[in-house]
Amino acid sequence: MDRHTVDWHGYIPAVTTPFTADGDLDLAAWDAQLEWFAAEGLDGVVIAGTTGEWYTLSAAERATLFARAARQVRGRYTLIGGCNAYTAAEAVGHARAAREAGLDGILLTPPPYVVPNPRETVEYYREVGAAVDIPTCVYNWPRGCGIDLDTETLGLLADLPNVVAVKNSTGDFGGFVRGLVALHDRVRYFGITTDAVGAALMRGIGGDGLMGAGAVLGNDHPAFFRHLAAGDEAAALAVGARDRVLMSAWFTKDYGPRFGSAPAILKHALGLRGVPAGHPRRPLLPLTGAERDLVHHTMAELGLVS
Questions:
Q1: Separation of alpha carbons 207 and 185, rounded Å
Q2: For residue range 197-220, what is the model confidence (pLDDT) as tens digits?
Q3: I want to staple 224 with a disulfide (CB 3.0 to 4.6 A). Which of 80, 154, 207, 240 is the partner?
């Protein structure tokens, strides 16, 4: 497998997992979210990723989300299963559930908290790939995993048979660009910002899009990449500027939240749009009143609420 094995492109966000106020999985809300993503023209979604609060999900719940999404929207947009876990054995179980459901591929970070060295990291991905034959996106998530995969390590991972893509969420812009230059012709490369810099990278080097979070802006997110593909950079930058407003107001340079938690922020914002995103699951908590006001202010600035 390589980048040509899949057609992943554009905006493929890690989406929220809806829970009730009591912490139960809300499958009716999940179904409604899946349909909203389709109506807004998303290019795909990552299920049970960090934004999807994977660390609170049981294996059975994760498999249920995978299977339900595949039954409802498979073929309408790309479906990638988040398989993050602390051990390769756990990740293999989630990857098998994704394959059995019929998802298009999986997203996998190095094991969080463990802080593996490069040799251990490569072996982790090798073990998962040897057990489950499914297209895999390597997720470099320094904030959550405690390591920042450098270009050499990403290159070794790109050599593995199942690896077809990299989501590079490093806060090191130079490292991001070095990875893009080295790997764009071998794997799909995600993390392109929706601004003039991102447009220049797409135009001059390549890149495949952005695996963002939440899809709060709906169609504006994929429109950035569609306008670029059509050669209309002015239109791309116009919609991209809206994403920059949101990202600057709610998140830091390394993609951490400025207040509350990312799932709580995104769920409240989606709720303001009428999308049944539900509640965060403990240990995460809902936003405070003041934090909800901050989200409402940004949404009003973008013209999404009154």
A1: 9
A2: 999 999 999 999 999 999 999 999
A3: 240
